[in-house]
Automatic annotation (TrEMBL):
Basic and acidic residues biased stretches: 16-26
Domain of life of the organism encoding this protein: Eukaryota
Region (Disordered): 16-38
Stretches assigned to the PID domain: 76-192
Organism (species): Latimeria chalumnae (Coelacanth)
Recorded GO CC terms: early endosome
Protein name: Si:dkey-19b23.8
Gene3D superfamilies in the cross-refs: Pleckstrin-homology domain (PH domain)/Phosphotyrosine-binding domain (PTB)
Length: 197
């Protein structure tokens, strides 16, 4: 009888232990799910916070705004430093102009501008307001280049009312200044081809 009782108790004991283990496992799984859910929510919240941060919104707005100003034509985000009279096409004369504009920029700063390359002209617009600051027809441009001393500077020399002018732009990197020069060269080629036809 003792043996029978023992045999009867052992399966019950195993069953009781198995149930305890299952309940424990279920509890651990619930805790893991809650923790994972909490982490997922936390990660989601972090991503949303970053997306909605003022800096990201400003960057996205600025990019969309610049694109809307171009109407599909090539455009470049730059700082338009200004325009100065010049008396020849010698590039050496531009060095003092560039130096002066850069010094003024470091002291006062400058707004963001969009330099838009149209099929027949260049225009500079304020990104925030969309106001056009300058408009230069391609046939009035005598020379354009990325500055040799300051490679992140793009400039062009144009003729306006019988006077040569040098317009200077600050780019965030040298590659952009070169890209603007290349883009403008292609526009000259297309305009010349159209004129021949």
């Amino acid at each position: 009888a003792a043996r029978a009782c023992f045999i009867a108790r052992v399966p019950g004991s195993d069953l009781h232990m198995t149930k305890d283990k299952e309940e424990k496992d279920r509890g651990q799984k619930k805790k893991r799910r809650r923790r994972d859910s909490s982490m997922s929510f936390s990660n989601f919240h972090l991503v949303q916070t970053i997306k909605n941060s003022p800096a990201v919104i400003r960057r996205k707005f600025s990019k969309d705004k610049t694109k809307s100003l171009s109407h599909g034509d090539p455009y470049f985000k730059v700082h338009y430093l200004g325009v100065e009279k010049i008396y020849s096409l010698q590039v050496e004369q531009t060095q003092e102009i560039v130096k002066s504009f850069l010094q003024s920029y470091q002291e006062k700063g400058c707004k963001d501008h969009a330099l838009v390359v149209r099929p027949r002209y260049l225009e500079v617009k304020e990104i925030v307001t969309g106001r056009q600051l300058t408009k230069t027809y391609l046939h009035d441009i005598a020379y354009c280049t990325a500055d040799s001393v300051h490679p992140n500077i793009f400039l062009y020399i144009c003729k306006r009312k019988g006077q040569l002018q040098c317009r200077v732009f600050l780019c965030n990197k040298a590659e952009k200044a070169k890209a603007i020069t290349g883009c403008l060269a292609k526009s000259f080629e297309r305009a010349f081809t159209d004129w021949q036809e």
